[in-house]
Design brief:
about 35% strand; 18 strands; eight-stranded mixed β-sheet; alpha/beta; about 20% helix; globular
Length: about 260
């Protein structure tokens, strides 16, 4: 067993500015809300969840000390947007834009927006990660996780998942030139057989951050890092979580009820 066809189900972003993130995601980018944690601000996990096409985007609440001005994310979320979508919408809420199309918010999250004639709304096209060593990263994603390498250039590579692709770009700095930060987001793979997946991945050389799968009301989870320190999680949904607002989207991306559990 490997992650070759596993859906990349969630991206969790840490933020201390939940209100401005809501404006950005809902009013500017235009991704639909599919779940709101009713106990805000007491519950910190998955406060707002959004349907971004092939992945669910979610925000976790965090303290402002987590976001140092000298750091920014090593992740760029690439959105495919409708033709005619204006980048001025992003600038209007204070995101800094560069000539190459990179936009960065006040806490150092990065976004790109690529127009597509067929898109009727924004969806995630790719999750792009800055890595320290491309060859070591390719070996990890290809040989340990068993993801399909679908393209590479001198300093970049692209891997398929069961949903949105992961792009890798080698470099010493985050996309805006600051020190790369990798503890402020989490990429989550769904696997219906999480214990079997854990065992198989250990046999392929993966070292998990904890010795066993943890189970709670959301389901089963276990985390690992890539060679650059990008944080990932394996996840299997609980019966209870599939009754929440994001449940139908989880079922869609995971391939139906049997595949989600």
């Amino acid at each position: 067993m490997s992650l070759r066809r596993a859906p990349l189900l969630y991206v969790f972003y840490e933020t201390s500015q939940i209100r401005s993130q809501r404006v950005l995601f809902e009013s500017v980018i235009g991704v639909p809300v599919i779940e709101v944690e009713p106990h805000l601000p007491h519950h910190r996990h998955g406060v707002f969840k959004y349907d971004a096409g092939g992945v669910v985007l979610s925000h976790n609440m965090s303290g402002p000390s987590r976001f140092r001005p000298e750091d920014s994310d090593a992740l760029v979320t690439v959105f495919g947007v409708p033709a005619g979508w204006s980048a001025e919408r992003v600038r209007s809420v204070g995101l800094a834009g560069r000539a190459d199309g990179l936009f960065t918010d006040a806490e150092g999250r990065h976004f790109r927006f690529v127009p597509h004639a067929r898109n009727t709304r924004a969806v995630v096209d790719e999750l792009r990660l800055t890595v320290d060593d491309l060859e070591a990263s390719i070996a990890f994603y290809r040989d340990v996780l068993d993801l399909e390498l679908v393209g590479r250039t001198g300093r970049a590579a692209r891997f398929a998942t069961g949903t949105v692709p992961i792009g890798l770009e080698e470099g010493p700095a985050a996309p805006d030139g600051r020190r790369p930060r990798r503890h402020s987001y989490l990429l989550v793979f769904h696997t219906a057989e999480i214990e079997a997946a854990r065992t198989a991945l250990i046999e392929r050389g993966l070292e998990f951050r904890q010795p066993r799968v943890g189970f709670s009301e959301i389901g089963g989870t276990i985390r690992f890092d890539d060679p650059s320190g990008q944080r990932f999680c394996l996840y299997v949904a609980s019966e209870e979580s599939l009754t929440w607002g994001s449940g139908p989207k989880v079922l869609e991306l995971a391939g139906g009820p049997a595949a989600a559990r």
